[in-house]
Amino acid sequence: MKKRKKTVMKKNTRRFLVFGISSFFVIAVVLVSVSKIVFEIIDKYKEASELEEKKIALEEKEKDLNNEILKLQDQEYLAGYAREKYFYSKNGELIIRIPSNKE
């Protein structure tokens, strides 16, 4: 009877050990998978926030460019812009370039 009890105990111990080890590996695989997914989600949120900032900057740039388009349709502004950027002058006007500190 004692021998039988010992063999049953050994079998139960082996079963518990096999079950414990296999459970450990299953839990480890699940945790690794879940953590990988969580890190991917965090990266996507960071990417989304960066893209949102870029979108806002591009929308501001678009507004500035639209304002510039409206200004360039005005003949007086266009003439002043051409004189400033491309050194065009009116008749009898002399252009003197003063170097800036940036150069």
Keywords:
mainly alpha, rod-shaped, 0% strand, 103 residues
Write the layout of secondary structure elements.
Blueprint: H1 2-72, H2 75-86
Task: Write a brief caption for the model.
The protein contains 2 helices and no strands.
Give the DSSP E fraction (strand runs of 2 or more residues).
under 5%
Structural class by secondary-structure content: mainly alpha
**Count of separate structural domains:** 1
- The 3D shape can be described as rod-shaped
Instruction: Please give the largest β-sheet.
Output: none
Helix content: over 70%
How many angstroms does the end-to-end distance come to?
A: 102 Å
The H-and-E topology, N to C, reads as HH
In round numbers, the mean pLDDT is 87
Structure notes:
By secondary structure, the chain is an all-alpha fold. Helix content is 81%, strand content 0%. It has one domain (2-86). The protein has 2 helices and no strands. It starts with a helix and ends in a 17-residue tail after the last helix. The mean pLDDT is 87.
